[in-house]
């Protein structure tokens, strides 16, 4: 069993137990206690678990509307942003797509092309492209139902071997000028790794996200090259910050008619 497989097994075990003693986890594997403690340190640093006084706890994420519900919100805005995003893709590009609903709309647009390769951890994107015209690389990983996405150490291990021309990603919310947030620590780990893999990083986000925030900060604005929004950003402090660090902001207005 590889380290990645062992860490996924630990997460799966904690999902059934919620919390348990460190020694109980050690007893599940035919490896040294030091190896398991290194695995637990890795998972704790990624935000997947917490440890207190010899006990291990799975980090619980707040309840959010499911993917299918979120996918119906701001549909016209998402389509407008998707059209702008698709124009940024060049022939021969490897296009990485995360699991947000706005990125799902981007996937529908770029999926019309046959001269690119898609890389994603999103099962919703793969299922939406019923007759794909291009190669699709789908990560492995732990299935996260609320986002119809694959997360966890296996995804990050897969992405270690990948280089993408351009990344389109979303976020749960914005934490002032600090950066981008999500609800799930496992999502955060995947997003961080995707950012590291891509030459160009594009945030596509509906304006409601500027009024909300997630639990886990996964990226600073300095790590983003372009932001696509449907309406101008209203926060003057954030606007000034983005201008000072050289982040391009594109406003994609929905079609009138």
List keywords for this structure.
257 residues, alpha/beta, Arc Repressor Mutant, subunit A, Rossmann fold, 2 domains, three-stranded antiparallel β-sheet
In terms of topology, how is this protein built?
Blueprint: H1 3-17, E1 19-21, H2 22-26, H3 33-45, E2 49-52, E3 55-58, H4 67-70, H5 75-86, E4 94-97, H6 101-110, E5 117-120, H7 123-128, E6 135-138, E7 142-144, E8 149-151, H8 153-159, E9 164-169, E10 173-175, E11 179-182, H9 185-197, E12 198-204, E13 216-219, E14 226-229, H10 236-245, E15 248-251
Helix pairs in contact: 5-6, 8-9
Short summary:
The chain has 257 residues and is α/β, with parallel strands linked by helices. The chain contains 10 helices and 15 strands.
Q: If you compute it from the alpha carbons, what radius of gyration comes out, rounded to the nearest whole angstrom?
A: 19 Å
> Would you identify the regions where 5 or more consecutive residues have pLDDT less than 50?
63-73
Report the principal-axis shape.
Answer: globular
Query: For the terminal residues, how far apart are their CA atoms?
Result: 57 Å
Write down the domain tally.
2
Number of strands: 15
Q: Strand-and-helix sequence, N→C? A: HEHHEEHHEHEHEEEHEEEHEEEHE
């Amino acid at each position: 069993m590889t380290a990645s497989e062992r860490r996924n097994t630990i997460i799966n075990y904690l999902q059934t137990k919620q919390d348990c003693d460190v020694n109980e986890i050690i007893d599940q594997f035919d490896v040294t206690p030091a190896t398991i403690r290194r695995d637990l340190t890795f998972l704790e640093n990624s935000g997947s678990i917490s440890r207190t006084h010899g006990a291990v706890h799975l980090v619980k994420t707040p309840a959010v509307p499911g993917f299918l519900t979120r996918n119906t919100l701001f549909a016209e805005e998402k389509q407008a942003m998707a059209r702008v995003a698709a124009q940024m893709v060049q022939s021969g590009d490897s296009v990485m797509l995360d699991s947000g609903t706005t990125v799902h709309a981007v996937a529908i647009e770029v999926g019309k092309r046959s001269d690119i390769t898609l890389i994603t951890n999103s099962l919703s994107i793969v299922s939406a492209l019923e007759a794909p015209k291009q190669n699709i690389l789908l990560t492995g990983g732990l299935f996260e139902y609320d986002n119809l996405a694959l997360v966890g150490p296996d995804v990050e291990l897969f992405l270690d071997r990948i280089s993408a021309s351009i990344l389109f990603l979303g976020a749960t919310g914005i934490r002032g000028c600090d950066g981008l947030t999500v609800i799930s620590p496992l999502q955060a780990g995947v997003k961080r790794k995707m950012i590291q893999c891509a030459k160009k990083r594009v945030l596509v986000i509906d304006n409601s996200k500027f009024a909300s925030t997630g639990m886990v900060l996964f990226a600073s604005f300095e790590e983003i090259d372009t932001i696509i929004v449907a309406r101008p950003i209203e926060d003057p402090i954030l606007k000034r910050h983005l201008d000072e660090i050289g982040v391009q902001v594109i406003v994609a207005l929905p079609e009138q008619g």
